[in-house]
Amino acid sequence: MKSIIAVFLINIFFFSEIGSAQVTSDSLTAPGTNKKLVIGITETPPFIVEEGGEFSGLSISSWELVNESLELEYEYKTYPSLVSLMEAVENNEVDLSINPVTVTNSRMKRLDFSQPYFISYTGIAKKSETMIWSYLANIISWNFISAILILLGVILLFGFLVWLFERKKNKEEFGSGLKGVFQGFWWSAVTMTTVGYGDKSPKTFGGRFIGLIWMFMAIIMISSLTAGIASSLTVQNISDEINSIHDLDNFEVISVAGSSAQELLDQYNIRSEEVVNEREGIQKIQEKKSALFVYDQPILKYEIDRRNLNGELEVLQKTLKRDYYSYSFPKRSGLVEKINPVLIATLKTMEWNNLVKDYQ
């Protein structure tokens, strides 16, 4: 009988402790308490912008609108990079992060996410290309030079062969020595282009036989060589060369470490260099240390606008994938259920729609 009473008392004590713990846990985030939420952030313009210790941006505005209903006390805790911020959320160093974090399969295994509050795209930034410079660059390219050299070599070959036959019996038109070789080269070029000046013509059987062969061969060769030269002179922008994500492997690519863009590149085994943030990435593109910067499109556009680099850098119209920005939480965080309904309601307000217009 005593043992039954003892077990009963232990159960009462155990469940009373659980109940008190649950109340305490709920009260930590309840309005009017002294518990402050710790919100992890890292500067990511235009979503998180820090000026003189004050924070602004679309993500900050979204949280302020949500908290008008929640009335929670909170403080921001800054981190130097996205990687360190994600580690802090995963390790429960902060209660949540309002940074524009894209929901991915790998991240969902480590973190919980709220309802997406912004739809974005993974974009590509590069150096702007002027048509004049592109033509000049193609003219001095090896493809163009090699096509010209091949053409000159073939003209010289047939001019030399005709000169061998004509140098003795047709000295008036095909002289001796280097001068005669040059005359043969001139005849070969005129014959190939079908200009037909008539100032020089082979008189010997051997010379005319070579000339006949050259006339037919020139028709074929001039068309193929012209096509090769035209191809080498064709201006093709980088944007025209990128038709799928696999085409990125033909360029030097950089992306922000720990970003969803970097995950995408790793998924397709695209070789890339990692940078800490968008500022470093834009700097590398500006200094031609890399060809393409793959990252979140609105962040790329904002950074280029902020630095007044629109004439120097550009963001391609082509995008690689759609991104959904959400708040991130430690696994099994009770805050997700509290914040989600308010966040969804906030996204339907006119005030939020007016804010988003400035970032689209």
From TrEMBL:
Q: InterPro entries attached here?
A: Ionotropic_Glu_rcpt, Iontro_rcpt_C, Solute-binding_3/MltF_N
Spell out the Pfam families in the cross-references: Lig_chan, SBP_bac_3
**Ranges of residues in domain Solute-binding protein family 3/N-terminal:** 36-360
Q: Locate the transmembrane regions by residue number.
A: 139-165, 177-197, 209-230
Which superkingdom is the protein from?
A: Bacteria
Q: Does the keyword Transport apply?
A: yes
**One MF term from GO for this chain?**
ligand-gated monoatomic ion channel activity
Q: How does it sit in the membrane?
A: Multi-pass membrane protein
**GO CC terms of this entry:** membrane
Leader sequence residues: 1-21
Q: Where in the cell is it found?
A: Membrane
Instruction: List UniProt keywords, sorted A-Z.
Output: Glycoprotein, Ion channel, Ion transport, Membrane, Receptor, Signal, Transmembrane, Transmembrane helix, Transport
The molecule here is called Transporter substrate-binding domain-containing protein
